[in-house]
Amino acid sequence: MQHDHSARRSRATRRFAAFAVVTAAAAAALVGGTSADAVTSGNGALVYSPAAGSSFNPEGGAPAGTTYAKIAILKANGSSNGTQLVTFDQLVLQDGVQVYPIYRSTDDGTSWAHLTDIVPSDDFPNFTRTAQPTLFEVPENTGGLEAGTLLLGGMIMPEDRSISRLVVYSSTDQGQNWDLLSVIDEGGPAIYDPSSSSTTTTVWEPSFAVDAEGGLVAYFSDERQKDDGVLQAVSYRRSVDGGQTWGPLVNVSAPVNQADRPGMITVTELPDGTYLATYEVVNLPTASANAAPVYFKTSPDGLDWGDETSIGTPIQLENGRGLGSSPYVTWSPSGGPNGTVVVASMWSLDGNQVIDGGQNFYVNHNLGQGTWETLPMPVTFDATDTQGGNFSGFAQGLATSVDGSTLYQAVNVENLTTELNDIRVGSLALDADQFEAEEAALNDVALVSHVQASNGSKVGNINDPSSFVEFEIDVASAGTHTVYARYANGYGTTATHQIQVNGASAGSISYPATADWGRYQWSEIDVDLEAGANTIRFGKGVDFAELDAIRVSPAAAD
Fold it and tell me: CB 3.0-4.6 Å disulfide test: which of 223, 299, 359, 558 passes with 554?
């Protein structure tokens, strides 16, 4: 497929120049930035908690309560910019039907309230089940849709799951009211069968982008090409009239080996005008059963993705570790001249592509090329809960603050009381500097290797009056800085460390108990630092906690 790229660079330049103007204004308006108010400590903020016994599982097995958490942060809605919206697959019936719930936060994700429900059965009376929602704010005018219009796409189906239909709804009042825009596509029964002998013809999991030529693109998974040897493809349809009608089916990746099964595609635009897509690949012959390693492809315009039979490039660290299952990709302008590509996924994989926990994002600072690194998640979940369980951490969503300095994660997290998944949102300051505990000055402590520690190691046995972990920190300007500490506390009660800054006491930092010694959370403390070199020492407090890494934010005055 050929496309006219002549306007691509100028459009990308204008779009990101406008973004720079918006973020500069936002930074001026939000004194101290957004990071200080966002929820990093603990395990994020609670959005929704289903009542015990309220969930059903249409496919059998343990009920999940929620999956597919997705988040959007308004950036093209004037005075409403910064408002956060969350939706999710709510496996709870309301008057016999499922809905797409919309929750809203107007305080940087600190507190959440139910805003409204989208009820597809009002438009399609026989389609009483919903699944796989996504949220998208239109960044520029496209085909009659104005910038700032919100889209919610999802798959709906009848009670018997005999049809899979992809639909899209739109809102022009920041998510308060929604109208059916169109049907994107339709497939056969909504049945998950990834085996090579599968005969299913389902369409799944829509997501959106505006391409370099200004068209609206709906990407999704397509199982209807089996006659061509394609078990499942990730594909798209394009609209030039604002999502009212959709063009022909085009493949992004469609391997013809009747084995590899790419799915769950999401796409982000990069600052040079190119596009990056991530997707899982179930059944990959070199992986353990359904480990679903994550791959990516790039495109000059969001439309031309090269050889459609190519599976793309795996996302891996230099040591061969990767990630798997239900990825989501976004881009932030923070983190260097090319910003940061951030990928969330349910699992991490070892060098043999075997499922091995998972509490870290994978990030890249060179437009997807070269080295990938890890970045600790602000919200963690039971990553050992693989298929057959309640799918904690499955199909999570990412978004960035208006100024791009803060990353927000929406994810379903197991609630040990209800045994269902809550929806939680947490944040991480991308403009902060990270320091590994094992690389600090250490005294009377022990190094502890752990695969989910941010650099594969953490510091434990901070148990005695002589124990300490001391970081040397350089900051650009004097002022109050937030120090975020990533820790594990499987002791069962709240622990503390005593903090000294430049040799003087700065109080203590509190560590509520984590699920076990292999699960991590963040805690934070504000400290006053001098311009230039400083030392921050963590010493023995009350009870016990292990220290993995710290992140130090710029001063509020920066």
Answer: 558
- Given this model, what pLDDT does residue 93 score? 95
When computed from its CA atoms, the radius of gyration of the chain, rounded to whole angstroms, is: 23
140 with 16: CB under 8 angstroms? no
CA–CA dist 32, 42 (Å, integer): 22
Q: Per the structure block, which two tokens stand in for 474?
A: 């350089």
291: its two tokens? 């480990």
Contact 411, 394 (CB under 8 A): no
User: When comparing pLDDT for 556 and 437, which is higher?
Assistant: 437
- The type of residue at 517 is W
| Cα gap 82→123, rounded to integer Å | 31
- Extract the tokens encoding 327: 């990825």
Q: Which residues, in sequence order, are bridge partners of residue 482?
A: 526
Nearest CA to 201 out of 159, 231, 167, 156 is that of: 231
Two tokens, residue 337: 């001249």
Beta bridge partners of 234: 221, 253
Q: What DSSP designation does 438 have?
A: G
List, in order, residues 6 or more apart from 375 with CB less than 8 Å away.
Answer: 342, 360, 361, 362, 363, 428, 454
Q: What are phi and psi of 61, to 5 degrees?
A: 85, -170
- The 8-class DSSP code of residue 104 comes to E
- What pLDDT, in 10s, does the model give residues 200-241? 999 999 999 999 999 999 999 999 999 999 999 999 999 999
Size of the chain in residues: 558
Q: Is the entire prediction scored with pTM above 0.85? A: yes
Q: Which of 126, 141, 31 shows the shortest CA–CA distance to 76?
A: 141
Backbone angles phi, psi at 8, to 5 degrees: -65, -50
Q: What DSSP letter does each residue of 211-222 carry, written as one string? A: -TTS-EEEEEEE
d(CA 208, CA 219): 6
Structure confidence by residue, pLDDT tens digits, 5-27: 444 444 554 455 445 444 444 44
Domains plus CATH for the chain? 8-429 (2.120.10.10), 433-552 (2.60.120.260)
- Nearest partner of 132 among 55, 58, 205, 63, judged by Cα: 205
User: CA separation (Å) from 170 to 165, 180, 210, 243?
Assistant: 17, 6, 15, 9
